[in-house]
Specification:
Elements (H helix, E strand, L loop, with lengths): L12 H13 L9 E2 L1 H10 L4 H13 L3 E3 L5 E4 L1 H8 L1
């Protein structure tokens, strides 16, 4: 069998979600624990070369798992208690 494309490390939404949590953890939050979304998406999309669909699926999974909470404006996220607990493991 011939493979023409490399396996994408963030094609799995769980892997993408964990990487987004790792990136968010490395960012110093501003007012009220806010982490501006561009400080998460830039490293994921540009430095790690994740695809926009992988980013979206990872962010959706992180929110669905209760690790992050996104503001209704979509401009920032905050860690939930479950997200904080995940980081302390």
């Amino acid at each position: 069998m011939i493979r023409f494309a490399e396996a994408r490390p963030y094609a799995d939404p769980d892997a993408a979600a964990r990487k987004l949590i790792e990136i968010a953890c490395s960012i110093e939050p501003v007012e009220d624990g806010r982490i501006h979304i561009e400080k998460i998406n830039w490293p994921f999309l540009k430095e790690l070369r994740g695809a926009p669909a992988e980013y979206g699926a990872g962010m959706d999974r992180a929110i669905a798992n209760g690790w992050l909470s996104m503001h209704e404006s979509g401009t920032y996220v905050t860690f939930t208690q479950a997200g904080t607990d995940l980081l302390s493991r």
